[in-house]
Specification:
- By secondary structure, the chain is mainly α.
- It contains 6 helices and no strands.
- The protein has one domain.
- 56% of the residues lie in helices and 0% in strands.
């Protein structure tokens, strides 16, 4: 039994060493600026174009209905249910925020939650 205990102990030590050791092969000093990935012109254009109301609506409706933004926040089901009434206001908030020079951190948190997740992003 001691033999198996020693194997399990060695495996546990190796696991946590790999988990917490610094991987020196990818430190910032080894990355060359010229090798950094670059966005295509199409991607840059898509990031700088005006946010459309339909994009905001799709993002809201793609969220799980009963997830809250924060402990005191409204769940997405609220925005979905009342979209006809508040959709313009939500879109105006997003549109205005995207055009501001600086962003209030509480708005930034909400905007991050509005970015839809894609299974196979292309870009």
């Amino acid at each position: 039994m001691e033999y198996y205990d020693a194997i399990l102990q060695a495996e546990a030590i190796n696991y946590f060493k790999q988990l917490f050791e610094v991987d020196h092969s990818t430190t910032p000093n080894t990355l060359l600026v010229n090798e950094m990935p670059r966005l295509s012109e199409q991607c840059i254009d898509s990031l700088t174009t005006t946010v459309l109301k339909e994009e905001v609506r799709r993002a809201v409706f793609s969220m799980k209905s009963y997830k809250a933004f924060d402990p005191d926040g409204f769940q997405p089901i609220f925005f979905k249910h009342f979209w006809e009434r508040i959709g313009d206001d939500i879109w105006n908030l997003v549109h205005t925020t995207f055009n501001m020079v600086s962003i209030n951190t509480s708005i930034a948190e909400a905007l991050i939650a509005l970015i839809p997740k894609e299974s196979n992003p292309k870009g």
